[in-house]
Amino acid sequence: MRFLFCSLDSPGFLFSAIGLASVLVRRGHEVAFVSDLETSSLLTRQGLRRLQRGAQDGHSFRVADWARPLAVAIQVKHIEHALTEFSADVMVGQCLTLGPLLVAERRQLPVAVQGLCTYLWPTTDEPAPGREGSELESRRAWRHGDLLKWLNEARARFRLPPWQGSCRDSPFLGDLFLLRSVPELQTDCASLPERVHLVGDCLWEPDESDPELETWLKETESPASPLIYVQHGRFFHVPSFWGQLVETFRRMNCRVVASVGRLDGELGALPGSFFVRPHISQGRVLRSARAVVASANSTAVLGALSAGIPSLLIPAGGEQPDVAEFCEKAGVARTLAPEDTAPERIGEALDRLLTDDRYRERACFYRSAFARVNGFEIAADLLETLAEARQPMVRAARVSPPRLPISATR
Length: 410
Fold this sequence. Notes:
Rossmann fold, alpha/beta, 2 domains, disordered C terminus, about 400 residues, 6-stranded parallel sheet
């Protein structure tokens, strides 16, 4: 079978796609990618093929441009050119790639969608009594409507009629939607649209050595100085927490490893206890970390959950408010609003995470839940079935998830 992956260029999207593609290759399938020109080197190192945008190659699938009409049109042209030399049985897109959805309709091809760690859209057109005014429901409805506006604008460019229908049949589900979670965490999975399937964390990172990081971790190791992993994403229109965080750690006896490739603003002067890079292998750091501070993007949160580490989440936009709320309710995180990040508030929240055993107990419970699931293998099974059936993949009925241990529910 032949699978064409359509991936945005940022590690948060690309890495998971590579992990799933690699499993399909090991199973004997053919795989190719359409993605930005800058991803070519990494894909080549992983033994994966990137198909060019055309006779003259160029940029496409850049996360910063994902919703712009011209960028979506370029995605479509890139995919359709790729299909002239790679006749795919299934396309695999992502929750922010609109191009594959349009090509799937134009070419009558099955399309799967790799999602994030929480479901982003309404689960019903009629909210349940008592939930009509909830902030979560409002965000989901607004997000779906806004995304649908962008999709319909792109559809018009390709002379397709505007999409109309129930949110349970949303076009953003594709024929198969892969949600990166487990039943123990996504306790409302039975209420999700039938094409949504849970596939564990689906985390992947390049297996590349980093002697500088290893040396720093070894030389600074101390039981009295806990290691904190920081992942600061883009904050757009809301205040960044970086400056306040740096000031917090000037007052705390902690070591900090920070990934700041998408930081909005300057780093400034940093304490000697900081190790900072644009991108850092979070899996290596999380093996030793005691807490995570992040803007609640899916990759950092899934990393923390899979490592059994509690988090301080400071959400900005996108999926982050939903993810932060989800994690706080699960008892694995504390949340601060971006405008409420004075050093005293950050320090108080971190101290609670480091000293209150209930956060680590709950995080360890979810670590065990994720460890029981080989997400990439489950996702590969579903993709193989989609390639054979060529029709929407409806999940089977699910059993109730295990309950939290008593000690983790106090």
